[in-house]
Design a protein that fits this description.
The protein is an alpha/beta fold and about 400 residues long. The protein folds into 2 domains: about 270 residues, 3-Layer(aba) Sandwich (Aspartate Aminotransferase, domain 2), CATH 3.40.640; about 70 residues, no CATH class. About 45% of the residues lie in helices and about 20% in strands. The strands form 2 sheets. It has an 8-stranded mixed β-sheet with strand order 3-2-4-5-9-10-1-11, with helices on both faces. Strands 6-7-8 form a 3-stranded antiparallel β-sheet. A hairpin with a 5-residue loop joins strand 6 and strand 7. The radius of gyration is 21 Å and the shape is globular. Bound molecules: flavin-adenine dinucleotide and iron/sulfur cluster. The site of flavin-adenine dinucleotide has 32 residues, from helix 6, strand 2, strand 4 and strand 9.
């Protein structure tokens, strides 16, 4: 059998291995692990695998989420890893496994610290399980994880690194690696997080102020833990602890209030330059699961191998998934994200020009109306009076606006 045929046979086996529903890991997980491993061992030389191993290689799926070689829905096996994670704890479980198996010697991760009375994102090289677990959950404000200092530390690291980042940051890192062979040698595996967009730090300040919290009272802050939409965790310097539902933040974030400016021109939702990418499963079915699931995709041989290794070692459980599920997991977010033509047209109303990707698809009326809502909110939030107006609007009314925007992004 040719390598191509062996590969597609193995990938079909991987898809057919989906005999167990998510949430009841067990036989399905090991079937999935074996099938994914089979796909890997059938893949042949890395250069060829990068071209060959593609699930759903039709133009629409390529446009929506880039190359996918294997897709799995599941979560970390260890409940300690999952507790405190943003989604299924997949990133932390994978990093721990890579480190403990000697595949890498360090993991470039980020966490929120309180420094000089403010929240700061700190990127560092974690070399122990404890350090990795300390970086669990998402950071929803803008920062540069690969600034000069961070790149220098990565270059000086003796050994191989797994690196976690948002799609735009990983693309930037890839470009740096292309010019810097030393850095390239260090960066063994790039793990991307799906990303709808991020916000300016001022947004969390505003939301916490609305909740009566002063940032300088905090000792520790986490954006999102727990099932489904999750809770923000606040630890105060005086020993108090408080939880605030994450939707009190995500309501404004999802309406693009104080959005990071760079996100307006972005079309990469699923971390297309990563070796392996992961994110939430935002479907009705997933809402019912006792354990929060993630959906993760291997984009090339390296990514698929890392996934297969973690599944075989039992640190992750999951079942083979499909490009369709990848799409459905983030259906509205990716539909909006890819509608850059709509954003460019609406921006013109403000006399601004947005450079669209050459291959951007023509926009539809619903996308243009959706873009009008979010760009309107984003523009309003740039003005201090506008921000005051937004935060004075009852949340219920904003929920209605958000529901309408989501409806427009559903198709
Ligand atoms: C700004 C942002 C927007 C997102 N948008 C979506 C979305 O639209 N749809 C979706 O499905 N998923 C989205 N995600 C991803 C999702 O929230 C989870 O981060 C992802 O599913 C991993 O969860 P986990 O439980 O496997 O990771 P965990 O085990 O909790 O580990 C999280 C890892 O991510 C790293 N990390 C967190 N935030 C950042 C950051 N900003 N930059 C660099 N590294 C970071 C941490 O250092 C840690 O290593 C977004 C994440 C972020 C940060
Ligand atoms: S939306 Fe794009 S530009 Fe914005 S943070 Fe996410 S990946 Fe980066």
């Amino acid at each position: 059998m040719s390598q191509d045929a062996a590969l597609s046979a193995a990938l079909s086996a991987a898809r057919a291995g989906a005999s167990v529903e998510p949430g009841s890991a067990g036989g399905g997980s090991s079937t999935g692990a074996r099938a994914v491993s089979a796909a890997v061992s059938a893949a042949g030389p890395a250069e060829r695998a990068n071209e060959l191993v593609k699930l759903g290689a039709d133009p629409r799926s390529e446009y929506m989420f880039g190359p996918i070689c294997s897709a799995v829905t599941g979560h970390a096996t260890d409940s300690e890893v999952r507790s405190g994670a943003a989604s299924g704890g997949v990133v932390s479980a994978l990093l721990t496994h890579l480190l403990e198996s000697g595949e890498v010697t360090g993991c470039v991760t980020s966490r929120i610290v309180v420094r000089d009375g403010d929240l700061e994102a700190e990127t560092f090289i974690a070399t122990t399980r404890e350090e990795i677990l300390d970086t669990r959950t998402s950071i929803y404000f803008e920062f540069d994880p690969f600034d000069r200092e961070a790149l220098e530390r990565m270059r000086e690291h003796e050994g191989r690194l797994a690196v976690v980042g948002l799609p735009c940051d990983l693309s930037k890192l890839r470009r740096r690696c292309a010019k810097d062979p030393e850095l390239e040698r260090r960066c063994h595996l790039l793990i991307g997080l799906y990303c709808a967009h991020t916000s300016q730090k001022e947004l969390i300040h505003r939301v916490l102020a609305k909740e009566g919290v002063r940032v300088d009272e905090l000792e520790r802050f986490r954006f999102r833990t727990g099932r489904w939409r999750g809770m923000m965790q606040l630890h105060f310097r005086d020993g108090r602890h408080r939880e605030i539902p994450f939707p009190r933040y995500s309501l404004y974030q999802n309406l693009f209030v104080l959005s990071a400016p760079k996100c307006m021109a972005c079309v990469d939702h699923y971390a297309e330059d990563a070796d392996l990418a992961t994110g939430d499963v935002w479907t009705k079915e997933a809402k019912q699961h006792e354990i929060k699931h993630s959906i993760f995709i291997g984009r090339n041989r390296k990514g698929v191998e890392a996934l297969a290794g973690a599944l075989e070692a039992g640190v992750l459980v999951g079942r083979p998934s499909t490009p369709r599920e990848v799409f459905l997991a983030n259906r509205r977010a990716v539909t909006y994200h890819k509608a850059i033509d709509a954003r460019a047209r609406v921006w013109k109303l403000w006399g601004r020009t947005l450079k669209t990707a050459d291959q951007a698809w023509p926009s539809r009326w619903n996308e243009r109306l959706g873009a009008l809502i979010v760009i309107g909110m984003e523009e309003l939030s740039k003005r201090s009076w506008g921000l005051r107006v937004i935060f004075a609007i009852p949340r219920r009314l904003l929920w209605c606006v958000l529901a309408f925007f989501k409806l427009l992004s559903h198709y």
